[in-house]
Amino acid sequence: MTSPLDRVVVIDTEFHNEQRPGNRPVPVCVCAVELPSGRRHRIWCADDAPMPPNPLPPDAVYVAFGASAEWSCYRALGWQMPGRVIDLYAEFRCLTNGSVLNVGTSLLDAAAHYGCPAMPASHKERMRTLVLTGGPFSAEEREVILDYCMEDVEMTAVLYRRMLPEINVPAALERGRYSKAVARI
How far apart are the C-alpha atoms of 28 and 31, rounded to whole Å? Predict the structure, then answer.
């Protein structure tokens, strides 16, 4: 019998919120890594060209940090929601609520808590500022943004592996369903 965690996609998106009805995000890129194969996906979304169908496997468990942001981008792209989700933000909060932490609750904070390698906060802030300009982005900026998004994916993948022994997977999958509902709000 195979485990529901035999095929995992760790995913991150970058987007900005130019003035759109309902404050819908404008996806800039989607990056993902499939586990255990290590297959990487770097998808640029910010051009006016039509988006291709979602190339990511629909039957995998999807792992993200603050997953409702990813599903908001899925909705904006017209992609079908994944069936199973683990949101590491929710899991980090469940595992640390009531504890005195020396960190906050961001991805960088969770990575620090679990001793994961992480980018400097100043780099993350610079990259988020660039993405939020909304472009147009030069070819060099596109590569830098895709690299940054993939760095977040890789950090999230390490965090997932470190947190997994502590995660109640059936409960996490239920909380992950909630992240898709939040994206619809």
Answer: 10
pLDDT tens track for 95-126: 998 777 777 899 999 999 999 999 999 999 99
Residues written for the chain: 185
Which are the contacts of 124, defined by CB distance < 8 A and separation ≥ 6?
108, 148
**Residue 50 gets which letter from DSSP?**
P
Residue 21 has a pLDDT of 55
Torsion of the alpha carbons at 139, 140, 145 and 147, rounded to the nearest 10: 110
For residue 52, say if its preceding peptide bond is cis, omega within 30 degrees of 0.
no
Burial of 77 (0-12, 13-18, 19+ CB in 10 A): middle
